Amino acid sequence: MRKYRVRGGNRICGALGIGGAKNAALPILAAVLLSEGESVIHNCPNIADIDSSIEILRHLGCRVDFVQNTLTVNNPGPTTTELPTELVSKMRSSILFMGALLGRCREVTIASPGGCQIGSRPIDLHLKGLRKMGAVINEENGLMYAKAEALKGTQIYLKEVSVGATENLILAAVLAQGETTLLNAAREPEIVDLARFLKSMGAVIHGAGTSTVRITGVKKLRGTTHRVMPDRIVAGTFLLAAAMTLGDLTLTGINPHDIKAITANLRAMGCTIKEKPASVRLRAPRQLIAIPHFITEAHPGFPTDMQPTFVAALSTAKGTSVVEERVFESRAAHATELIRMGANIVVTSDERVIVIKGRPHLHGATVHSKDLRGGAALILAGLAAQAETLVLDNGYIERGYESLPENLTKIGGDVILQP
Ligand code: EPZ
User: Fold this and answer.
1) pLDDT < 70: residue spans in the chain
2) Contact indicator for 26, 53 with CB cutoff of 8 Å
3) Are strands 414-418 and 2-7 parallel, antiparallel or unpaired?
4) What is the pLDDT of residues 287-343, one digit of tens each?
5) Model-level pTM greater than 0.90?
6) Do 42 and 31 form a contact (C-beta atoms < 8 A)?
7) Who contacts 349 (Cβ-Cβ below 8 Å, separation ≥6)?
8) Distance between Cα 219 and ligand 1 center (Å)
9) Is the dihedral of CA 188, 190, 194, 199 positive or negative?
């Protein structure tokens, strides 16, 4: 159990550089399996989910060095196609190794990834698309055995916009025979970054970042060098920390275009935002203003991963806010913990609508993080609360935030990870 001790009352001020995006680096690490030889990946975040991916790559026979956010991977060709269940069950995004191993080796054995606190997180769209490309997938005792004589390009309509399914099918299609067209594909910037990486390996991909992605299979891919895009969710998290504490924060190494939906909501809450090509500056108002209503949706809409931290910020805003979580079916666990800190929040029984009546202050408490972004929300609430908050966390926060206490301390926060 990790214990984050947060003392409220300090303003978050100054400047901070933003590191690489977890949700771009994870599919890129799976994509490494598609080529032989060496790939070098810069600006890779040093977080627990990356460590898990590195363990999977080593299990598959790759040599991996990870020094100061640069990953060097030598892939002589997978020595096995069986993914270790204990690693797969730790991290849902390991499902992306399924598409990569099928694409490279035409077979894979992988445990069905668990859901987690934010919803059931099915993978029916992944399996339907892979089967349509020619994979035979049998599920038995919680394991999936997938095999394909050949993967053939085809047209696949995704009935739900799914980031993971879009990425998995791209990974399976780049070495397939012929052309694959993904319709109703997800448009997240992390998918564009994955496509950038694959194209630098020699893949032929058009339309990444739009809802129609066309992949023309090639025979082989080669190792490459790539710099991971900045993490837009980490950037949004720090901007909110400043917004909640009367702060003034400049983030560097971030593309303002990637966080348009986030900064639009921050402006609606009364923040002043100044954008430059690779930096964003936020100045907080004397008191945040509620947002009457907003929804979470696929990119370019407001990102679901910013919902928990915005709920924390709106807990101290003037007025009532209504947030509708439209992507995941149970992403409101942070509400009960925020209520323990004095927040006035009501969640509908289906956990899809969160009503927040802002209050001038929250007070410190001992609270439990239930998932990655919910944990970050509790730390932010602690920064804005009076006195001291203890966030008890089962390793969720470090899965997605590199050195969060150190970075918050650098910009005025009083946060330590207790030994
Ligand atoms: C990715 O998860 C991200 N994770 C999530 O970030 C993010 O919240 C999510 O996309 C949405 O943006 C990574 O990139 C590693 P989805 P993913 O498939 O791919 C339904 C974080 O905090 N669905 O886009 O799992 C699903 O239930 C994490 O960094 C199906 O029905 O999300 C959900 O309602 C949390 N069938 C919706 O689609 C499927 O086969 C969107 O899920 C797949 C998904």
Assistant:
1) 114-116
2) yes
3) antiparallel
4) 999 999 999 999 999 999 999 999 999 999 999 999 999 999 999 999 999 999 999
5) yes
6) no
7) none
8) 30
9) positive
